[in-house]
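The following record pairs a protein chain with its ligand, tricarbonodiimidic diamide.
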Amino acid sequence: MTNSKGPSIGKVAAEPEPIALDWTATALLIIDMQRDFMEPGGFGETLGNDVSQLARAVKPIASVLSAARETGMLVVHTREGHLPDLSDAPPAKVERGAPSLRIGDPGPMGRILIRGEAGHDIIPELYPLDSEIVIDKPGKGAFYATELGDILEKYGIENLLVCGVTTEVCVNTTVREANDRGYRCVVLADGCASYFPEFHEMGLKMIKAQGGIFGWVTNSAAVLEALGPEVAANRP
Ligand code: TIU
């Protein structure tokens, strides 16, 4: 980082090739680490998924989040969800499939995928600080119908360290949106997870194939290493 402790450029080991990042132009983007996806009784489980598959991403994200906070990196959290009157929820999304509870129905953590409900909130282990940015998004991508693009521009961000859930749905959609907008996306393999391990693997492969068609794939240890020995030594 650019501060008294070290340089502003860090070289991150990644695939298809290492990438040099100017930390002052880099943000940590944590996608949808919400109780609705991570815990029983939420949206993810109503769709028929085994939510325990996602737990593996929490510790790697926590370690990078802690390092980002230590170095002053911009941190952005996102949450997928809808207004209580469902006015921002397309019928095509609400009516889709045969979930045990639909978006807006009352569940054990409040109404499913509705802003302000307990299930919509971010899990305690990764809870945002008051100083961090939280983007509420109605879609799978974090740029669609949100202020994310304006915020990143305001902070001079060119590079995104991306993690969260699920790899092939909201992470991939957001990376594709960001790539088209000119951001370098560096995705943390161990900081992402899917209900389907094979989709996780393929989701990452799709990003880094063809010379990094959508971005780069790295892991939490490589990011901590690139941020410098002081940060790596303090990892939780
Ligand atoms: N179902 C699924 O895998 N994901 C979502 O619905 N949203 C996100 O990925 N956040």
